[in-house]
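Lecture 7 notes: from sequence to structure.
We start with the chain below.
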Amino acid sequence: MNWRAWFSHPAGHPLAEEDSFLPDLCGGEALPQVMGISVLMALLVAIVDTGVFNLTWPVLGRAVLLALWIAFLSVVSLCLAGRFLPASQPLRGILLCYLAILCVAGAVGLAGEQVMAWAVPGRQFSFYGAFEVVLISAVPAGILLRYLFMRRRLQVLEQAELEARIQALQARIRPHFLFNSMNVIASLIGSDPVKAERAVEDLSDLFRRTLTGSQTLIPLREELALCRSYLSLEKLRLGDRLAVEWQIGDYGAGAQIPCLTLQPVLENAVYHGVQLLQEGGKIEVAVTRVKDRISIVVRNPLNPRMQHNKGSKMAIQNVKLRLRAHFGRSAEVRSEVSADCYTTHIAYALYGK
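Predicted structure tokens for the same chain:
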């Protein structure tokens, strides 16, 4: 068997040095699974040792108790030794972990023999009994280490895939109003240079955010400020046809959101709503917070004779995917269409679920 391949990164590449080859055992990650597998292995060993029909509660209890102690102390020892394990050499690290678990099993076996010799009349202390515990623990220890290693490797792959997906989604955010905004700025240079300068600053800030790292969460107040800058640019183009009403509640200082999440929704509200109406209309933005859940509602007028086109739906799907990538299943993005109004609902829990 190729042991190096068994504990190696896909395509032969080891895990990066900053990535541990085991889950965060100090934070309790994978502990329930480890304890559960240990109990199942103890049950299997007890059945093999005595047979199904000869299995008694004392024998089963002893096997489960030993397994739980070995599993718990092994997790503690691996947690303490984790910082000294060579992450760039997973094979060596796995072997060291394996030896550490066997040492823990030997110590628990000796302690168990001592307790049994003290508690059971006529029972003699036996080093063979402790050695038997080590031998029995050898196979489950290898299986558990393999499970922990594969779990961590899967997490690394999922994180890499997630970041790549977020970057791909972020790359699709290219505001369509660039050329219109530049034309508006050019027309203002001669008649109102101060307003033209402010428009250039707003446009520069917006595109700087577009180039921000896609995995970055920014304070919600910064996203709202960016949206105000964007709508100011659209106000220059549409004039009195565009009105905006902000209903901002107390969302707290720690509220965050992926960069450029709300802006595409407002862009849809302008291009597929207000802009298509000769008389224009009003965009309403409401932000509220209930406990740890943020709710954002955007309403814009809709021409009842025109279908809300596919471009808008693609942008909404983009926003949903990016929120789900950061906040998990707690993120919700949905839209409602009435006779003359289009409403987008965005909601997510700050700490994800």
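Points to note: The two ends are 41 Å apart (CA to CA). The CA atoms of residues 173 and 274 lie 21 Å apart.
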